[in-house]
Amino acid sequence: MKTNKLLKRALNCFFLALSITFVACSGDEPTCESSIWYADTDNDGLGDPNSTLSTCEQPEGYVSNSDDDSDALGPLNSKFTVGAAVDGEGYFVTTDNISSGTISIVGNGYEGWANLSVSVEGFLYNLNGDEGTLDKYEFTDSGLVKRDAISTTALLPGSFFRYIQDTGSGDLFLSNFPNEDGDAPYAIIDLETFTVEGHGLVNIPDVNGKDALWVNGLVKDNEIYFGSVYGDWATWTQIEDSLITVKFDYPSLTNPEILVSTASTGQTAGYRNNGTFKTENGDIYQYNLTSSHWYGHDELVGKPTVFTRIKDGDYDDYVLDVSASFSEPIAIWNAWYAGNDIVYASVVKEADITVWGDLKINTNTLVEVNLATKTVTELNIPKASYVDIFNLNCVENGKFYLPVSISGGEANIYQIDINGGANGFQKGAVLDGSNVFVNSLHRNF
């Protein structure tokens, strides 16, 4: 893969060097001055600085600017991976364009679930729950090709992995929530060799006599931060009146340290996606999942939905009270970091809850959260559930891409201008089929 990219770059430079700046026209016609045009492989109006032509007339598929930092040098139709549930069945497909046109899922992609997946350096790693394996696919000109698999059920019989994370340090971290003894299953996979570096159970310590009910870890340098929620394991009551993160050394998963914030209460682990993320400068932010509907009782009524920050290994005094921006009780269901201190979050308003148990029926409002200015802006995007989005990793050229699936209605990928305000978006590719709910969206190259 890397050799092919270097070869393409070398060829582009070679042909550019041979290009003729002035073309003599026949007869008395004036000399034509050629220009350099840049390939726009994803139809976003931005050109690839590494793929050029020098001609008098603008070629089809080329533009005059070289502003695209992400036009694929990878295999054909492999820039993005879209995983979706269609009428209760799972599919995933690769494509080079999510900004326009139609993305056909059924019959064109791969049958199976790619909701628990990550894309790293030309490979898609997918937790296959049906087979009990971690599958490794390579992006090729012929599509995704399965290269290898690791049996995850053999690692920890009777357990499964709910989360998969690219740590950014050459391995994958697989994990799940803890059992009644506080033991949470984990596995560390070395990406270079695709072998198991370590696996077992990590014990999440009790706090004030209460159990860790749910955890989800984020690796930063040589530490891992487990967002959590604490209470009575059997009943999910007696929720601890604070936000708690458990920090361990990584990858040894030793030396647990309890971090506590009194800014609010509820779950900092997230549900489908991670409730903890890190920004470009290494700071860690969390949002908390609160709602009397979620926990089945009302001890969290009146507790605010907030963003908190972990800096230099512990909570600091940063608090962004999202609830203060609304006149009714709200909860954040999902939130995704888009870069430059901007977060996009799906907010469940109390008035929009019909039947909490059927999450696809309840509609959410998408908001833009500026962590630096502590402002919350509602986007005028159609309300949707945003419920089953496990992994959303699709940012390029100042754009954030988000699937919007309306139950019983249309489904699109929306292109959002990062920090663009209430109307800073446009409708992108159409997702065909009935009830298409995208659960993973990756930019691969």
Automatic annotation (TrEMBL):
Matching PROSITE patterns: PROKAR_LIPOPROTEIN
Keywords attached to this entry: Signal
Leader peptide range in chain numbering: 1-24
Protein name: DUF5074 domain-containing protein
Organism name: Flavivirga aquimarina
